[in-house]
Amino acid sequence: MSISQKEKELVLARLEVLSPELHFSVGSSKESFSRNEMIKQINENTDIGKDFIKVELEFLRAFKNGSLMSNLATR
User: Fold this and answer.
1) Sign of the C-alpha dihedral, residues 11, 13, 18, 22?
2) Within 10 A of 7 (CB to CB), how many other CB atoms are there?
3) In contact, 38 and 24? CB cutoff 8 Å
4) Which of 18, 46, 52, 58 is spaced 20 to 30 A from 4 at the CA atom?
5) Are 53 and 30 in contact (CB under 8 A)?
6) How far is CA 27 from CA 11, 43, 44, 55, in A?
7) Which residue, among 57, 72, 66, 58, has the nearest Cα to 7 in the 3D structure?
8) pLDDT tens for the chain, residues 1 to 75
9) CA proximity to 1, closest of 59, 64, 57, 61
10) How many helices (H) and strands (E) does the chain have?
11) Contact indicator for 38, 52 with CB cutoff of 8 Å
């Protein structure tokens, strides 16, 4: 999956509004990243940054098409 500049900017904009105290864990990595560290990962095009963008875009697509809410409602 290729990540466009607009998609990257969207994810970065969403991160910017979050608390700097928030931490993320991506994939099977035992390491967690602060908001600012994740922004750095994305800006440096690391594998972690790319994975985070992909996960965020999947979340947004699921939210848009309603599958996120229907999955939550069935739990």
Assistant:
1) positive
2) 16
3) yes
4) 18
5) no
6) 17, 19, 18, 9
7) 57
8) 799 999 999 999 999 999 999 999 887 778 899 999 999 999 999 999 999 999 999 999 998 888 766 666 665
9) 57
10) 4, 2
11) yes
- Please give the backbone phi and psi of residue 23, each rounded to the nearest 5 degrees, phi first: -125, 150
Q: Which residues, listed in sequence order, are joined to residue 33 by a DSSP beta bridge?
A: 24
Full-model pTM: 0.83
DSSP state of 59: H
- DSSP line for 1-26: ----HHHHHHHHHHHHTS-TT-EEE-
The two structure tokens encoding residue 60: 């947004």
| Residue type present at position 74 | T
Give the largest Cα separation in the chain, rounded: 38
